DNA sequence: GCCAACGTTGGC
DNA sequence: GCCAACGTTGGC
């Protein structure tokens, strides 16, 4: 089992939206970045655990935990001319983009803000992409030690 | 709203 | 294959 962090804008789809579908799965569509796609397609497996991160909000940070419910399959929204993330270069015979399904696990007892994570950028989270400058990856791997450290910040 | 950082595109 | 232009991300 692996650990991941996935970013979402709460205005579009936040942890509360995911929690509103208890036990159900939600497609994580719209990923249009090759690095993120490759990780989803090649490395994500059902049961993998996900830090759910809120971006483009105040304050940004980790707000909950989700899990991978289904391994990668073609992102059909790329085929749809009316979809927001339509990509004419992707078609069913040769899909360019993939998505996974995720499932709500729980809210964190408190949000762990980006500022708090950055306070450990020279320590336990030294190699964590999120706290490095200019990071724009919407999906990133989390090492087991990083996962434990971050959840340790959550407190009782 | 600003803007730094970064990925993608396309001319050459 | 280089690289300038452009678009997007996302913190602030």
TrEMBL record:
Official protein name in the record: EVE domain-containing protein
Report domain EVE positions. Answer: 2-152
- A matching Pfam family: EVE
Question: Which keywords does the record carry?
Answer: Phosphoprotein
Q: Which domain of life is it from?
A: Bacteria
Q: Does the keyword Nucleotide-binding apply?
A: no
Q: Which InterPro entries match?
A: 5hmC_binding (IPR052181), EVE_domain (IPR002740), PUA-like_sf (IPR015947), THYN1-like_EVE (IPR047197)
Q: Give the lineage.
A: Bacteria, Pseudomonadati, Pseudomonadota, Gammaproteobacteria, Chromatiales
Species of provenance: Thiohalocapsa marina
């Amino acid at each position: 089992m692996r650990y991941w962090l996935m970013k979402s804008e709460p205005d579009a789809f936040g942890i509360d939206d995911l929690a509103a579908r208890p036990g159900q799965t939600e497609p994580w569509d719209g990923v249009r970045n090759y690095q993120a796609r490759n990780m989803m397609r090649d490395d994500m497996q059902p049961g993998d655990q996900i830090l759910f991160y809120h971006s483009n909000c105040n304050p940004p940070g980790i707000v909950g935990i989700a899990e991978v419910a289904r391994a990668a399959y073609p992102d059909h929204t790329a085929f749809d001319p009316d979809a927001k993330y339509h990509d004419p270069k992707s078609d069913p015979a040769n899909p360019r983009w993939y998505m996974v399904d995720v499932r709500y696990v729980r809210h964190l007892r408190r949000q762990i803000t980006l500022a708090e994570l950055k306070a450990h950028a020279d320590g336990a989270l030294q190699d964590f992409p999120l706290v490095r400058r200019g990071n724009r990856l919407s999906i990133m791997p989390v090492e087991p030690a990083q996962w434990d450290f971050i959840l340790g910040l959550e407190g009782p």
